[in-house]
Specification:
Cofactor: Fe(2+)
Family: Belongs to the carotenoid oxygenase family.
Number of strands: 35
Keywords: Iron, Membrane, Metal-binding, Transmembrane, Transmembrane helix
Distance between the termini: 30 Å
GO molecular function: carotenoid dioxygenase activity; metal ion binding
Helix content: under 10%
Shape: globular
Oligomer: single chain
InterPro entries: Carotenoid_Oase (IPR004294)
CATH class: Mainly Beta
Radius of gyration: 21 Å
């Protein structure tokens, strides 16, 4: 069973099939019971999948300057004994509401500048797009963004409650989009990049309910971009890329953040190791230049060395690709490979830094039960045919210790997003992903066996509207 084919003129005729997922702003829907197109929902899959991403890239006949500028839209899939219920809502930020009323862009963002002459842009603050990730707490869902406070939403209805300072954040204080939860203690670690006369990383340690337990600051070597970090045994690890942000053009209103960043490989990548109990710096050192958006996981090996799996780019061309992505025709070549970095945290040196998988890959992740500990499975999106596809068409599982892979490529013209691992009672786990079918202009939720991706989905659920490619998600068990 397939959904009716929509008018192709509306969804980016002449553009690559994948681009049809972003050719039009997402439409809110639900709550609605989701039809099962194939298979059946596993009996032990009970809880909620939440996903965040840039749901709206167009407004008033204009397209955003960068993928990161799109307004945040949240997809929730609630799995109960009665079946699966889906709903999609835009985060009702102040900026979203003002621009919806005006039907035009009014604010600066990561890539775009505020409208009007440059002197009217002086000192303007970027819009909090609430579009990057989600953090599920016991009593609320947080929509996360890089450079400001999170927005709180209702866990069931996705109604926006409003900006949430969690009881300790100052207005505009950054609470980044990649928090890490310790599977043993439930503690949540996060950070925010503070730029100013003295650049620093603000560190946060929260309990499982989101209450602050500890804060600290460590200095940053330069004005730069830090998107993610990793827990590795007793440490928090930051890899600071050789990207330099020129603040003056932003303050003068002549450039947006994205265009004010420059690749400076002579700085190398700086490795910063932080004791996660005291939130104090252990060591830092420089190594070869590269760029990474995302980490898969990290842990402390038996010989006390630190092992980190991540998606590595050779330079910062990925940022230009992300800017061109919104046009449907990216020209810049930017690919990443899964790498394994091994370091001596105390001596402050790299022991090895080697590729793990030979194809263009991104969005690495592992089981939430393995965060900060040794992992035998790394899940990720990849391109099975990089010469023929500009977007990910496959999901893979890799054992980084022995190189064994378990791979699944979707039907041509179908594109998955970041795989979310859900533990189950058998210990094998499920992988949940949202797949856009460009052949039929349809989005589905697909459930796969984590230890047998090659067998294909055990269940496919039909979504009533197209879900644009998202960034990050999470699972909350019931």
């Amino acid at each position: 069973m397939q959904a009716p084919t929509r008018d192709r003129d509306t969804f980016g005729q002449g553009k690559p099939l994948w681009s049809r997922a972003i050719a039009k702003p997402a439409v809110e829907f639900g709550p609605i019971t989701l039809p099962v197109l194939a298979g059946q929902i596993p009996t032990d899959l009970r809880g909620s999948l939440y996903r965040n991403g840039a749901g709206r890239l167009q407004r008033g006949g204009q397209t955003t300057h960068h993928w990161f500028d799109g307004d945040g839209g949240i997809l929730a899939i609630h799995f109960t004994d009665a079946g699966a219920t889906g709903l999609y809502r835009y985060v009702q930020t102040q900026g979203f509401q003002a621009e919806a009323a005006a039907d035009e862009y009014l604010y600066a963002g990561y890539g775009q500048m505020a409208p009007g002459p440059f002197w009217k842009r002086w000192g303007t603050q970027p819009k909090n797009a609430a579009n990057t990730s989600v953090l599920a707490l016991p009593d609320k869902l947080l929509a996360l963004w890089e450079a400001g406070n999170p927005h709180a939403l209702d866990l069931d209805t996705l109604d926006t409650i409003g900006l949430d300072n969690l009881g300790y954040l100052q207005p505009g204080q950054p609470f980044s989009a990649h928090p890490k939860r310790d599977p043993k203690t439930g503690d949540i670690y996060n950070f925010g990049v503070v730029l100013g006369a003295k650049n620093s990383i603000q560190l946060y340690r929260l309990d499982a309910s989101g209450q602050m337990r500890q804060q600290s600051q460590i200095p940053l070597p330069r004005t730069t971009l830090v998107h993610d970090f990793v827990i590795a045994g007793p440490y928090l690890i930051f890899l600071i890329p050789p990207v330099v942000l020129s603040v003056l053009p932003i303050l003068l209103g002549t450039k947006g953040f994205s265009d004010a960043m420059e690749w400076k490989p002579q700085h190398g990548t700086q490795v910063i190791i932080v004791d996660r109990n005291t939130l104090t710096e252990v060591s830092r050192f420089a190594t070869d230049p590269w760029y990474q958006w995302h980490f898969g996981n990290g842990y402390q090996a038996d010989d006390d060395s630190i092992v980190i799996d991540y998606a590595r780019y050779s330079n910062f061309d990925t940022n230009q690709w992300l800017q061109e992505f919104v046009t449907g025709f990216p020209k810049t070549q930017a690919s990443s490979r899964l790498f394994r970095l091994q370091i001596d945290a105390i001596a402050g040196k790299v022991l090895s830094n080697e590729p793990l998988f030979g194809l263009d890959s991104e969005f690495p992740m592992t089981s939430p039960n393995d965060i900060g500990h040794h992992h035998k499975s790394l899940f990720f999106c990849y391109k099975a045919n990089p010469k023929n596809e500009e977007y990910f068409d496959s999901i893979g599982c890799l054992d980084p210790d022995d190189g064994h892979t378990n791979l699944m490529t979707f039907t041509k013209g179908c594109y998955p997003i970041e795989p979310i691992y859900v533990p189950n009672s058998q210990g094998s786990g499920w992988i949940l992903t949202v797949v856009f079918d460009g052949n039929h202009d349809q989005s589905t939720v697909q459930i796969l066996q984590a230890n047998n991706l090659e067998a294909g989905p055990v269940c496919v659920l039909e979504l009533p509207e197209i879900i644009p490619f998202g960034f990050h998600g999470t699972w909350k068990s019931r």
